[in-house]
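Q: How do we represent a protein-ligand complex in a form that can be generated token by token?
A: Start from the inputs.
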Amino acid sequence: MLPRIGEVTPLDRERLDLTRPGEIRSAIRSFRPSFIVNAAAYTAVDKAESDQAVARAINAEAPAVMAEEAKKIGASLIQYSTDYVFDGTKTTPYDEDDPANPQNVYGKTKLEGERAIQASGGAHLIFRTAWVYATQGRNFLLTILRLATQREELRIVRDHVGAPTLNREIARATTQILAQICGQERGPVSLVGVSGIYHLTAGGETSWYDFTNAILEEAAKIPDATPWFAAATGNLPLIARRVVPILTSEYPTPAKRPAYSVLSNARLNGTFSVKLPDWREQLHSIFVAPPAEGV
Ligand SMILES: NC(=O)c1ccc[n+]([C@@H]2O[C@H](COP(=O)([O-])OP(=O)(O)OC[C@H]3O[C@@H](n4cnc5c(N)ncnc54)[C@H](OP(=O)(O)O)[C@@H]3O)[C@@H](O)[C@H]2O)c1
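Then emit the structure tokens for the protein with NAP bound:
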């Protein structure tokens, strides 16, 4: 979606390893971009508990270097962060000014990244998103569909509440906001005065258990397997008949996760007039209008 706004130079791990600060500096100095969009991260939440140094290098130190270099050339840094900066003890949506209190290494290192960017004093937008899924890669949606071809019963945590957010909705919102900043929509919006943290998630809230039921409901309704669905299920029939709600305590993981991490998007909506659809609508959309390749 970003190419609609201007020339985009995508860099993957082969071209730029984020554990090497020197590579980050020389890439930014040679490309001299107007915007740096950093969607890369160390996202293996459980593995991070025992791999702290690498998680910190990618989630905290790399964004710090990007922010420092961006400031030198007057570029703006767009960074993605996470609902896992919160401890999950609230029962109403978190806003950006609620105190962060991450409960795991991943959340701590992402928060360090946020703080380094803010401390740089350069123009930035930090978008905290949550429960991201997509029709490719590794994520909850694809795991559930695969398991549903293998097991009649799925046991899924019901005491964690959040807002599952589709990757293309994050891309769409980011593109809309950058288009505004570049003056392509609603007149130019300068980053001066709007630099900061914004929550950017699907509307509504659900549990992993209810999300699973919704995935299986949608999957049961589709008349023909789309290519992404065929790849997710290996063209096998779904045999899952029961979804059993369980407690987190019955499914121990190395990293502790927030029990409630719904984020209020009011600041995003008020500043940029951008509102993401409800999580149920987002889920439905991939079954009726599959994402284009590469989104
Ligand atoms: N997934 C979620 O539920 C979730 C929730 C909240 C926030 N977020 C945030 O949203 C953003 C995107 O998350 P995601 O789930 O899309 O991540 P993802 O699927 O795990 O992708 C992470 C990307 O980072 C790249 N990467 C990792 N280490 C790298 C390194 N040393 N050098 C260069 N590239 C490296 C990976 O490259 P390879 O493919 O080569 O490994 C991959 O392309 C992240 O900032 C994440 O913290 C995600």
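The radius of gyration is 19 Å. The chain is about 40% helix and 15% strand.
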